[in-house]
Amino acid sequence: MYSQYKLQDDSGLLRETASQTSGPFVHIGLALEIAGFESRSDEIWQDLAKEGAKGEHIELVGHVYDGNGEAVHDALIEIWQADSDGNYVANFDNKQPFSGFGRSACALDGDFHFHTVKPGQVGFYGKPMAPHVSLAIFARGINLHLQTRAYFDDEPEANAECPILNSVPSVERRKTLIAKKEQGDGKPRYRFDIYLQGDNETVFFDF
Amino acid sequence: MSHKYPSFLPRDRSWQPAQYTPGYKTSVARSPSQALVSIQRASDSERSGPVFDGLEIGQYDNDLLMNFRTEGEQAGLPIGERIIMHGQVIDQFGKPVPNTLVEMWQANAGGRYRHKKDNYLAPLDPNFGGVGRFITDADGRYHFRTVRPGPYPWPNGVNTWRPAHIHVSVMGPSISTRLITQLYFEGDPLIPLCPIVQVLKDPEAVETMIARLDMTMSKPMDCLAYRFDIVVRGALQTYFEE
């Protein structure tokens, strides 16, 4: 047996493989066009919704800032969201109108850019959660990816009732999870800037 | 209410690296200062995740000796130590994780990345790209063919070098199991010197990232093999839930 896995905790469970930063060159692996690399036949990228996808087509954009207020240009963002009916479409396929998973990077103009549809409400133990997108942030200097959620500022009633948003102890900090609608280019655009540290630090979740 | 999706064993964040690890300087300004907010009962949003059956995987996507060969006079194979990197994705209960996406990227044999922001003086290899991907089989197994990457210097301390490593990304059954790590090679003396490795407090956690030389899977007169198994969070069936 040549595996490195003989490691078990006291209850006999294997230990999760340790996480490491995705480093400065994450793009050559997960965002090929940013690295200046030729794309393969099929890539996981930032257009979750194609023409014909059901629901309201939106853009989700944002910067990532470090604790000094500097833009983090080497971040990679992954999102996972329900479709416009609030169902998770597990199957990723660029040939179908909508996939619930996508990736973007902040390398070009500092913004990540997702073209998607506004998600519907997903149930939570018999209650609805407000429409939201789950995000994972990977970058040089981030040892274990950070997990957050983007909600929408034009859903104030749903947001006020959302059990997960309400579980954030600081009422003030809940605001860091609300994407702001702005003038878009042909379709509504929501801005979700992520502050890794300091003033306005975004809420990050453990789950 | 029943759930379509399993829940997962909690992530042990004392085993995993802390966010603020000043020996790795970039973490200082990129680590949250506030505590994470724990989602006490994971919802379908956390329990579900993408499946990549519909992603078209090319013939050589897991073969880095073949997937960046140039045309014309320079056409050939990459320079470096030819290796097979293989292993199994399992969960904390030892259960195989079939049909999941494993991605990897790396520098060439000289420690140079094919990335426009890498300006290390070691040259690019015209026949080496450095990216691979594979979907695990029914037993959770994956394999790549590549060259062993070289160490490279980086501006952290005044003379800091990364050990030879391959970046490895795995999705697992849910976004809860999502993990990016780095594979290191058994016996590399740079491992204990590296500030990025040292973000882990427990030496046993470092062991989970060290691929073992695997002579049984090497090919005589062709290439060596390294085995790297990946453990993702254990999936629980939930029998009783309100």
Short description:
The complex is a heterodimer of chains A (207) and B (242). Helices cover 9% and strands 26% of the residues of chain A.
Q: Into which percentage range does the β-strand content of chain B fall? A: 25-35%
Largest sheet of chain A: 8 strands, mixed
Terminal CA distance of chain B reads 6 Å
Rg over C-alpha atoms of chain B, rounded to the nearest angstrom: 19 Å
Principal-axis shape of chain B equals: globular
- Looking across the biggest beta sheet of chain A, what order are the strands in? 4-3-8-9-10-11-1-5
Low-confidence stretches of chain B: none
Strand content of chain A: 25-35%
Q: What's the overall average pLDDT of chain A, rounded?
A: 95
Oligomeric composition of the shown chains: heterodimer
Word description of this protein:
The complex is a heterodimer of chains A (207) and B (242). Chain A has 207 residues and is mainly β. Chain A is built from four helices and 13 strands. Chain A starts with 25 loop residues before the first helix and ends with a strand. With 242 residues, chain B is mainly β. Chain B is 5% helix and 26% strand. Chain B has helices at residues 26-29, 44-47, 203-207; strands at residues 7-8, 37-38, 82-91, 101-105, 131-135, 141-147, 152-154, 160-162, 165-170, 179-185, 210-213, 224-227, 230-232, 235-236. Chain B is globular. The model of chain B has no long low-confidence stretch (mean pLDDT 95).
